[in-house]
Structures are given as structure tokens and as C-alpha cells.
Amino acid sequence: MDKKDIYSNAIIIYGIYWQMVKAVEEMAELQKELCKKIIGVSIDSRGSTNNLSKIAEEIAGVRIMLEQVEKYYKLEKEIETIQEKKLKRLAIKLEAWKVI
What is the pLDDT of residues 17-33, one digit of tens each? Predict the structure, then answer.
């Protein structure tokens, strides 16, 4: 079963409402881990403050949930267009800083 089939089946089984609730939950978990990284207070069971693997895990969860919402509402092309515009704006801002 490929990713699109998995997404479709998840939406059929759980419903788009609950998948959107799960997306919000995943985003909150990512936000929490990023905040921990920003303020440097993430301490795991070994006493380490490195939570990069947790950040990666939460990014993966967010992507999976957002891709389901994107697929359900058929937003792929619209999102791609918006991303391109936003990346162009970012490139212009970076150009002003002579970063590129």
C-alpha cells in the first residue's frame, strides 16, 4: 500500500474531522519540542538536552497529517503555487542581505 492509499484509508476509517484534530495535536507536539530547543530545557532520560530526534519525529507526524488534509481537500496545486510565491519572497529578502 503506498502513501496515498494509506492517507485515503485513514480518512475513510477515522474521518477528516478526527484527522484534522490529530493534525492540530501533532503541530502542538512539534511546537512544544521546538520551544524546548529554543530555551534549552529539553532533558531526556539520560540527562541530555538534545531533542533533535524528537523534533524529527514530530515533523514527520505533522507532515503525515498535513498531507492527509491536503489530499482530502485537493489542495496540492494551490499549496505548491503558494509555496513557490513564498520562496520567491524569501529569496528576495535574502538577496537584500547578500546571503544568496
Answer: 999 999 999 999 999 99
